[in-house]
Amino acid sequence: QVQLVESGGGLVQAGGSLRLSCAASGDIFSINTMGWYRQSPGKRSELVATITTGRITNFADSVKGRFTISRDNYTVYLQMNSLKPEDTAVYYCNAIRYGINYWGEGTLVTVSS
Asked: E strands of 8-99, at which residues?
């Protein structure tokens, strides 16, 4: 089993920045891709950004140029700049190990206009 613990969410004004962190513990050996997804009320969950062990990154079009993702072994970070009200969502950390997805409990990000 893999446990994921997120931190760093909160309330920020539009144009501001936040940094999310997610630390993996447990059976972390062979975790491959880690990343972030988000879900807003009434909307489907969507990919925000992912990063592989080889540091290959992937971003949703809506966050390109504003968000960056980085990784330190089994801790993943999401730096969110130029935040917009539409970025308001619960952000979930994800890790994939041997094809199995693991999820954190989520951290709320609220961007006020």
From this structure: 10-13, 18-26, 31-39, 46-51, 57-59, 67-72, 75-80, 89-97
